[in-house]
Structure formats: C-alpha cells, structure tokens
Amino acid sequence: MEEEDAAADPYLPYDGGGDTIPLQEIPRRGSNYAMSNGGGVASSTTHLLDFLEEPIPGVGTYDDFHTIDWVREKCKDRERHRKINSKKKESAWEFTKSLYDAWSGWLVVTLTGLASGALAGLIDIAADWMNDLKEGVCLSAMWFNHEQCCWTSNETTFAERDKCLQWKSWAELILGQAEGPGSYIMNYFMYIYWALSFAFLAVCLVKVFAPYACGSGIPEIKTILSGFIIRGYLGKWTLMIKTITLVLAVASGLSLGKEGPLVHVACCCGNIFSYLFPKYSKNEAKKREVLSAASAAGVSVAFGAPIGGVLFSLEEVSYYFPLKTLWRSFFAALVAAFVLRSINPFGNSRLVLFYVEYHTPWYLFELIPFILLGVFGGLWGAFFIRANIAWCRRRKSTRFGKYPVLEVILVAAITAVVAFPNPYTRQNTSELIKELFTDCGPLESSQLCQYRSQMNGSKAFTDNPNRPAGPGVYSAMWQLCLALIFKIIMTIFTFGLKVPSGLFIPSMAIGAIAGRIVGIAVEQLAYYHHDWFLFKEWCEVGADCITPGLYAMVGAAACLGGVTRMTVSLVVIVFELTGGLEYIVPLMAAVMTSKWVGDAFGREGIYEAHIRLNGYPFLDAKEEFTHTTLAREVMRPRRSDPPLAVLTQDDLTVEELQGVINETSYNGFPVIVSKESQRLVGFALRRDITIAIENARRKQEGIMLNSRVYFTQHAPTLPADSPRPLKLRSILDMSPFTVTDHTPMEIVVDIFRKLGLRQCLVTHNGRLLGIITKKDILRHMAQMANQDPESIMFN
C-alpha cells in the first residue's frame, strides 16, 4: 500500500471520526499526524501506545488456527525498515545493526539449506541401511548396508555382485542354510517382522510425541504459507520425530516416499532458524518468505533438483512469492544440494539413487505412446484423488479412524505379506524406479535385460540392439503387471496414514512400471514389425530405436503430474534427475496430457483435495470464481441473523466492552461513530482489545469497570468524578478494507486472494452494513458448488 505524506494532504479523515473536518484542524496537524495503516502501526514520530512509552506485548500477534493479516504485517515491516534506515547514520553500532538486518535474510536461508541438506543425507543413509536390515545383516560391519558390505569383498562375481560372504541373510544366520523352502520361509517371516516393527515404532512415536509429524505435510505447508497459523506444526519436536519416523516408515516397505515429507522437514528448519532473527520471528509475513525458500531447499535435496525446487515452491506451495524470495529460494536450494552432494549418501556422486543418462535420440512416432502414457497418468491421478479422498473421509467419519496404530499395522502387514514374493515389490521403491529407468547395457544383470541373442539363442546380451525378448523379460513383464496393481491399491490406502508419507515416489513408481511395460511392448513391436510404415522410416535394421527406460521416465512424470497437477516444475525436476535436455519435449507432452485428462475429471490436485478435506481456510489462486453474486448476498449479518456486533468510538465502558467480548466469539469488531450514524471509524481485533485491557489494568492506575473506553485522538468530555478513561486508539486499524454492498463477489474474492485479507467491511453510502470474512467466502464457494458448507470448514 502506498504511503502518503500526511502533512501534504489536508483532506485526510478527521481524527475524531465525525462527519466533517473542522477547518481549524487542518493547519494544526503538521508532521506528527499519522493515519494508522493496518492496525497498530503509527508513524515513527508517534508512540504505538499513548498511555505507555513502549508497545503492548502481545498486540499484533495471532492465536492458533487464525489467519494472519498480510497488510498489517507488511506495514509493520516497512515501519521497522524505515526506523533502521533513519538511525543507521547516527553511529557505527546502528550502521552495523542495519547491515546485520540486511544480511539476516541470506543468513537464515543459508542455515536452512545447510540443515536441510544434512538431514536429507542422514535420512537417505539411515533408510537404506534399515531397508536392507529386513533381508539380512553385514557381519564385518553392522552399520553397512548390503551394497557397502560387498564393496570390499573379493568373492563377488559380476553376475552375482550382491552376494558375498560378509553379508548374511536371516535364514543363513538363524538356520544356517541359504537355499531351500525353509530358508525362504524364514526370510519371509523376518521381512514381515521387521516391516511391522518399523511401522509400529513409527506410528507410536508420531502418536505420542508429535501428531503433526504424520502425512506428507505439503497441504498444511501450502495453508501455512497462505497465512494460516498452526502452532507446533513446524516446531522442533515435529522436526525431530518426523526425521526419525520418516526413516522408519520408508524402511517398513509401506507404499510411500520420503520426498514430500522432506519439504516439511526443510520448512521446520526454516521456521526454527527464523526465530534467531527478530526481523522474521516477530513478523509472520516475513517468516513465510523464509518458509518458501525452505520448501525449495526441501525439493532440491529430495530430487537433487535445485532449479526444480525453486519452481516447485513458486508453482505449487507459495502464496506470496516476491522476486527477493525467488533469489533466496535459489540460494537455499543451492546450499542444500551442495551439502547433500558433499555427504554423497548413495555413493554414486549423485544426489539421488535413480539418476540415469540416455544416449539414444527419440523419434517423432514415439510421441504417440508418450501421449498415451500421459492419458494413463491423468486417469490414474483422477482415480487416485477420488479413491484416496473417499477413504480418508471414511476414516474421519467412522470408528476406524480412532485406531491409527491398528490401521498402520494392518496396512504394513498386508503390504509386507503381498510384497515379499514379487522381487519388484520387495525392493525399495527408489531402487525399483532406478531399475526401471536404467537402460539395458552389457553391464546390466536385471531380468528386464535378459534378451535373446540372435546368434545362439542364449540369454546373453549382445551388441545388436534390435533384439527379441527372452523368457526373463516375459516373466519380468508379468511380475511388473502384478506390481502395478499392487502399488495402485496399496498407495490409495497408505497416503493419509498416521506416519510420514510422501506421494512422489509411489506415483513415480506406478508411472515407471506402466512406462517400462509400454516401452518393452513398443520395442518388441519395432523388432517383429520393422517393415511397418511407422518404424520403416526411423528404425533401420540393426539400429537402436526404442529405449524402454525413457518410457519409464515419461510414465513416472505423467503419473506424478496426474496426481499433483504440477507442470513446469515437474518437467524441470525430471530432466534434472536424468540430465537429459533432449527429452524435454516428450516429458512436456506427457505432463500436459496428464494434466488435461486429470482436469477433465476435476481441477483439484491431491494437495488441494486434502486441504479441502481438512477444511483449512485456503483460497486457491488457481480456482476461478465464476458466479454473479454481490457482496451484500454473502456478508453477515443476514436478514435472519442478530445485528452486527459493533463498538462505538467513545460511548462504551470497560464493563460493556468486556460484555461484548464475552457474549460473542468474533475475532474482531468494527468501530463506528455512534449507533445512530453508523459511520465507520476503523476495526479492532478481539485479541488486541483483551490484551490492551489486561495490560492497562496492570500498568495504569485508576482503570475501573466503569472507565470510559475511547478510540478517538482526544478524550471525550467526562464528569469530574468519573474514573480515568482508557484510550485504545493505538490498537485500532483506521484503514480497514471496505467494499460497497454492490461490489461483485468475484472482485471481493480477488481482493482476498491478492492481498491476503482476513476480513472486509461492507458499507452503503459510507454507513456500515456488514462484514465478509475469509470463512464466509469459503462457505459461499462451497454452497455455489452444491456442497455442505459446514462439512468443509476447519473445526
């Protein structure tokens, strides 16, 4: 909001709030006159409170589950900035303080990036080790996972590189035999035992110590970044428990990923570090700039994609994203990725497990299967959102939701029992994606690469790229089809459990399985029918024409896009994962197709759907308001409602004011000149009034129940024997947003979205008629969409 020079404008509202400005008032005002802009922020020459030298502690803060006032916070920050700038030339100390203030933003995102990178590395290493613990243990060094255990071994052969004497399966340790039905059953039993142990420990830690550590965290972070306050959601307990339980949940083999929760972990780091700097700790709007940068760092370490992280923060989670935040997000993502690269958790000098590089080009005819994968991704996304939301709603409304530990144990048991027999579901989902992305080369020993050589019919891999599939490939295709069905069903029931659970990896796995199946099918089609007009032009005999791994990558992007409805950031994340700029066009085609197909069934992504399910007060900027209603149809009070609770500027006593507060549950009250005139003076928040009265009673003598309360500049004339009056002008927002009763609601909704308002007053010819709050708008939008408005409101 533009700041105006009060001295230059003689037509500012009269301090007393009357209908006219007395002419003799104009020359007297001078530079000390200030219009309080945004609640409790006066000019630097007037004190925040007239009866005290210092501001009232607590005024301007917010209760839990309330929305911040963006306009007030921005004004507060501008005032703080002006104060620092005006003092910096006074002394070297003040100049140092101004430098520290300017640098504190970069300092806090650096600390956030360092912490996010370190925690991500820790989580990756611990999850890998615990995942392998389900299958066996390294005798030479307990803390080595399977791969690290066999690095130093001399007995390993290339074909069986994961077998060495140091690594013992549980059957070898307990029964002393590596093969046979007895050892298979023992390994099966131990796999289920560890999976259930990890899941049980994770859900118990979440339930007892940090209930906010469950789920992905992205819907809540989106809501927090839009200005909602959820105390403790980004606290130190949540951070500690989420980090530990994320490792346990991933290791338990549940169909979930760690990428979404890493955004929550990074935001916890950002929130904790912001308390070290008063600039951020005392201003909720500024704190949200740090959280935007933290979410970019979270995606940067989750996928090893710093630029993708910045775009994810901009496209998916941030509500307010100024240019300064873009640079800081970029820097935070860079620092986090650098730290993770230094830790090198996977031992492959990459930031992620499934980094791949392809060297073959793609051909124009391949756009057809790529677009078909996009259609599959959109259909899967729409189906998943509906099925998962229906299940979560059922969990909320039935007795089943009262037993979260039992539910986690049940889902973990079913997952472990069904997953073990199939090698593609038994392994870690990240390893599965790596295997599906990887192109077949002479070094690959995977079943997916067991093609028949044309020379002798053996399974050996030859240099001839145009090759018929061997029995290994066909059995792998059956196993992948079963894995696809298993993953689809289990992901629906897993997302929303009371353990940390991300959705990126399961969605990518489903897409990668479907893509690899399609890729192998197209490859075999090109081999057996190379004389078709589609293949004849591009696929010469002996030329490597189809890359099945590329189809897996495109399918993964399409399915993730179908679920989250991300577009630009998703394409950038996937090409940063694969290092292949050449494949941007197939990725873009698949991701856009999946978005269009998904949007045909419903415009909400999974995160928006969960926000609506939880009833968070979130106005989605992507959602259009197309109805032709007016402000007077939405405002309260309605015709059947009691009249609007208002305060008069100088008629109330402390007792009457407390009576209004005790009898109502509103968060704020419009202040008017008098009941007769109904002319608006300003808006006072309930919390600020309560704190100011308590503070005045403590620090001011003579404040009684029958003391007069006034919101004007000068005290009203009172009888000589009346007690000392209480001046509350300093907590009055003298520039509340107002609209007329004929303002179209689409303009009102736009104002709420773009300015982040909490409430807006409705007037008619300058007289107060009613009020519209954020919840009134959400109720109205629900009614217009034929939904029960009370069922979607946050309780």
TrEMBL record:
One of its GO terms (molecular function) is ATP binding. Residues 635-701, 732-790 form the CBS domain. It comes from the Eukaryota. Pfam families: CBS (PF00571), Voltage_CLC (PF00654). The chain crosses the membrane at residues 103-123, 191-213, 233-254, 261-278, 290-314, 363-385, 405-424, 476-497, 509-530, 550-575. One of its GO terms (cellular component) is synaptic vesicle. It is found in: Cell membrane; Early endosome membrane; Late endosome membrane; Lysosome membrane. It is a multi-pass membrane protein. PANTHER family: CHLORIDE CHANNEL PROTEIN, H(+)_CL(-) EXCHANGE TRANSPORTER 3. Belongs to the chloride channel (TC 2.A.49) family. ClC-3/CLCN3 subfamily. Strongly outwardly rectifying, electrogenic H(+)/Cl(-)exchanger which mediates the exchange of chloride ions against protons. The CLC channel family contains both chloride channels and proton-coupled anion transporters that exchange chloride or another anion for protons. The presence of conserved gating glutamate residues is typical for family members that function as antiporters. This is Chloride channel protein. It comes from Acanthochromis polyacanthus. The lineage of its organism: Eukaryota, Metazoa, Chordata, Craniata, Vertebrata.
